[in-house]
Amino acid sequence: MSKTLIRGAKVLGGEPQDVLIDGGVVEAVGRDLSAEGAEVVEAGGKVLLPGLVDLHTHLREPGREDSETVLTGTRAAASGGYTNVFAMANTFPVADTAGVVEQVWRLGQESGYCDVQPIGAVTVGLEGAKLAELGAMHESAAGVTVFSDDGKCVHDAVIMRRALEYVKAFGGVVAQHAQEPRLTEGAQMNEGVVSAELGLGGWPAVAEESIIARDVLLAEHVGSRVHICHLSTAGSVEIVRWAKSRGIDVTAEVTPHHLLLTHELVRSYNPVYKVNPPLRTERDVMALREALADGTIDIVATDHAPHPHEDKDCEWAAAAMGMVGLETALSVVQATMVDTGLLDWAGVADRMSSKPAKIGQATGHGRPVSAGEPANLTLVDTEYRGPVDPAGFASRSRNTPYEGRELPGRVTHTWLRGKATLVDGKLT
Amino acid sequence: MQRHLISAADLTRDDAVLILDTAEEMARVADRPIKKLPTLRGRTVVNLFFEDSTRTRISFEAAEKRLSADVINFTAKGSSVSKGESLKDTAQTLEAMGVDAVVIRHSASGAPYRLATSGWIDAAVVNAGDGTHQHPTQALLDAFTMRRRLVGRDAGLGKDLDGRRITLVGDILHSRVARSNVDLLHTLGAQVTLVAPPTLLPVGVETWPCEVSYDLDSTLTKSDAVMLLRVQRERMNAAFFPTEREYSRRYGLDGDRMAKMPDHAIVMHPGPMVRGMEITAEVADSDRCTVVEQVTNGVSIRMAVLYLLLGGNEPAVSHARPTEEK
After folding, report:
1. Which residues of this UniProt protein bind L-aspartate (chain B) (predicted)?
2. Which of B177, B203, B240 to mutate to test the interface with A (most CBs of A within 10 A)?
C-alpha cells in the first residue's frame, strides 16, 4: 500500500502538523515531514481526528434492505467520518444467534468502507423473556461484546440482572434502551406541555429515569458494568451522575439530535421529528450538553435509524420512529458542543472515538493520532457552513430532521487502516 | 378567514364572531319552507371519515346539501384504506376527482394538519375531529349555543362570550372537544374551568388558558354553562378511576347538583351521552339541557364554516336571498 502525507492538519485541533501514513499505520507525526513517495493531501488547517466510532447504528440488514444495507450504511458512515460502527440487533431475523451476527460481521468485512461490529440481542427475538445465546455470539467470528435489545427495553428486572451477571464471564456489556413499557403504552412524543396541546400520547421522562435508576442499582448489586443508550432527560443525567459518584460502573450515550432539537418541533406534526426516545425540552437539551462536556455522559452515539420515505410521509401516529444520523453527527456536535465552547476537538475525539471504542472494546479504533497506531483517521473542514441536503446522502434513507438547516463542519477525508474511503467529500 | 379550519386555536376573535354571526344567518334558512341555498352549487365536498362517527358525518352532510354542494362520502371501512392505502394516496385520489373541500375525521392527532400542510392536495381542509387533538366545529357550535342562550339570539350578533363562566367536566385528557373549547372560549373572552379527576387531566394542563379544579360541587354555583364530556367505560380498566359508580358520585351531574347551578345556567353535552354515568336522565331530559339544540346548531355552524372557507366574501344571506327569491 502506498504512502499518504496529510500536510498541515490540526491534529485534535492543535497546531498544524504533518501526518504520514504508510500502509495501514501512522508512520510519523511532526513538522515538515518528507513527502517523498507519498500522495499528498493538503489539509490546509482542517482538523484531524481519529476515525469516529458509533456504538449505536441501525444497518437494517438482514430484513429491511429497503431502508439500509450494510454496504449503504457503511458508506454513510465513511461519509460522516466513521471507521467503526456497532450494528444494532433489531434486524429481521433478530441478531440473537451466532449465525446472524456472523452474517452482519461478514457483510461489514466485504463492504470495505467501515468496520462493522455486530451487537447481539440480550433476549431471544428481543422479547425480553429468555436470554439469547450470549456466549455463542461472543465466541463467534463476530466476537460480540455488546448486547442490547435496543428498540425494546429489557424491562424484566430478573432478566436484566441475569444478563448483567452472565456477560461478566467474557467481559461483555449490556446496553440498555431505558423505557418502562407500561408507562409508554401508545407513546408518541415527550409528555409535557406540547403533547397536552397536540393530543399525542405522552412518553414521560420518568419512564426512562426509573429504568436507569433500577439498572445502575442492579449493576452495583451484581458488580457489573452497564451502558445506557440514548439518554434523553435532565433527570437521567442526575441519576447517572449520582451513580458514577458512587463508583458504579455505568457509561452513557447521547444522540446528536437530543443535543440540538426539542419537542417544540413536533408542533409541525412532521414525522421526521418522531424518534424514540422522543425529543425533549430545552432544559433537557442544555443538561445533556453540560453532561457530555463534564463527562457524566461518556459518548455521542448516532442511533442512525433509516426508514423508507413512505414510513415518514404519513400521519404522525402511523409513522416509524427514528432519524438517520451518521452523515450529520459531527456537524451537530460541532454546532452544539464546539462552537458553543463546551468541548474542544480533543474532547470531541474522546467522546466520538476513544471512549466509544473503549466501551465496545473495538481493537484498532479510537487510538491516538501518533506513530505506530492504526491509520483510522478523519479530516474535518471545521470552517465550512452550509445547509443539509439529504439528496447527497450515501445512506439509502433520507429521514433527517436537518434538511435545509445550516450546520457547521464537513468531513472531507476518511481513512480506514490507511485506505482512503472518503476523498474531498466523495466516497472512493 | 384562513383557507383551512384545523384548530380552534387558529381562529381570532373576529374570525370566530364572523362564523357565529354567519351561522345565525344560516339558521334562518332552516326556518324557511325550502331549507336550501345555492351557494356551493357546482362545488364538491368530500367527507373523508377514517373513524366512525355517524352524527358528525350526517351533520356535515346536511350542511353541505343545504348549501347545494355535491357531496361524496368516503368511509375507511371497506375502502382501499383497509387494504393498506396511505392517507396521502387516498387524499390525492379524491382530489384527482375534482374536490374543492375535504372534511376529514381521523383517529390520528394531526392528520388534518398534515393533509393541509404537506403539499399533498390543494383543497380546503376542514377538521371534523382528529384523535385527541381538536374538533373545531364542535367548539364553534358549542359557543354558538352558549351565545344564543346566555346573550341572546339577536342581542348576541357581533358579540363574544366576554366574562361568561363555562365549566367543562369529564375526560379532559382524551378529549378533543375539551381542547377546542378551551381555545375558542378563551378567544371569545369566557372564563373556563376544567373539572376532572387528576388522572383525566393531561400533564401540562397548567399552561392552558383556564382554571382547573378536582371538585365539581364548588364550581357549579359559579357556572353559566356546564358541559359534560363523555367518559368511556374502558377508561375504568386502565385505572383512570376505580368504578363507574364512584365516577358518577364525584363527577356526574344529577338533579341535586343541577339545582345548585344559577337559574339561568345551562347544561351541555357534545354527545353521545352515557346516561347514568356523567349525566342522569333527569338532567339530560330537562329544559336546561341543550343537547338537541347543539345538534341543530351544528348544521348551521358547519354551513357557515364551509361557506366562509369556500370563498364566501359577501354576506351569506344577502348573497343567497336574491337567488332564492327568483
Report:
1. 83, 176, 230
2. B203
Using pLDDT thresholds of 50, 70 and 90, give the confidence band for residue B323: very low
DSSP secondary structure code for residue A321 in this structure = P
DSSP lists the bridge partners of residue B307 as none
Where in chain A is CATH 2.30.40.10?
3-47+373-427
What is B136-293's CATH number, 3.40.640.10, 3.30.428.70, 3.40.50.1370, 3.40.50.2000? 3.40.50.1370
Q: Would the CATH topology of B8-134+295-325 be identical to that of B136-293? A: yes
Chain A positions in Cβ-Cβ contact with residue B179 (cut-off 8 Å): 197, 199
> Terminal CA-to-CA distance of chain A, rounded, Å?
16
Chain B residues within 8 A of A233 when measuring between CB atoms: none
ipTM of the complex: 0.90
| Residue of chain A nearest B180, judged by CA positions | A197
Tell me if residue A303 is catalytic. yes
* Options A18, A149, A215, A303, the catalytic residue: A303
For the ranges B9-18, B231-240, B316-325, the one whose mean pLDDT is highest: B9-18
Task: Answer whether CATH 3.40.50.1370 is correct for domain B8-134+295-325.
Answer: yes
In this prediction the pTM is 0.94
Query: Which amino acid makes up residue B154?
Result: D
What is chain B's mean pLDDT, rounded? 91
Instruction: List Cα–Cα distances, A91 to A36, A110, A384, B176, B280, in angstroms.
Output: 48, 19, 36, 38, 54
Domain boundaries, chain B: 8-134+295-325, 136-293
Question: Which chain B residues touch A193 with a CB distance below 8 Å?
Answer: 204, 207
Topology of the domain covering A3-47+373-427: Urease, subunit C; domain 1 (2.30.40)
Helix (H, G, I), strand (E, B) or coil at B248: helix
Classify domain A51-360 at the CATH topology level. TIM Barrel (3.20.20)
pLDDT band at B318 (very low <50, low <70, confident <90, very high): very low
> Residue A315: closest CA among chain B residues belongs to which residue?
B111
Whole-number pLDDT of residue B316: 46
Phi-psi region of A66 (alpha: psi -120 to 50; beta: other; left: phi over 0): alpha
Nearest residue of A to residue B6, measured between CA atoms:
A198
- Give the pLDDT of residue A5: 97
